[in-house]
Amino acid sequence: MILLVTGFKPPQILLKISNYMGAMVTPLSLLFIGKCIHQHGLRNLRIDKYQLAIMFVRFIIAPLITFYTLRFAGCSEFVTQVFTVLSAMPSAMQITIVAAQYGADSHFAAVSATTTTIASLLFVPVYMYLMPLLW
Fold first, then answer.
1. What is the pLDDT of residues 77-106, one digit of tens each?
2. pTM of the full predicted structure?
3. Long-range contacts, 86-90 (Cβ 8 Å, 24+)
4. In a domain, 33, yes or no
């Protein structure tokens, strides 16, 4: 914020380095998820009641709240449709790294990211189909 207000322009090399480092985050997260799942084995990649709760909130509750909030707020059809579909996207891959860094259950985070990504292959096209019909 201070850099923005003061108009300070960092050297181009620093901008490139930070851009490259930022571009590495998602691939590294995917590698870490793969490591977590490999450590625990594919047999332990089960969908339990907690995973079902995460998917229910992620793919049903969040899009419904988003859709009706934006419709009530008077947003345009396009904005409402875009944000509703975005709210049904899978969990961020980086959450696994954050969970491991702060001592939380990184395996649970890896399984959650994996299951929501797989489930999004079903839910996102359904939402894309339903959005024009609901307006």
1. 999 999 999 999 887 878 888 888 899 988
2. 0.70
3. 87/62, 87/63, 88/58, 88/59, 88/62, 88/63, 88/120, 88/123, 88/124, 88/127, 89/120, 89/124, 90/58, 90/116, 90/117, 90/119, 90/120
4. yes
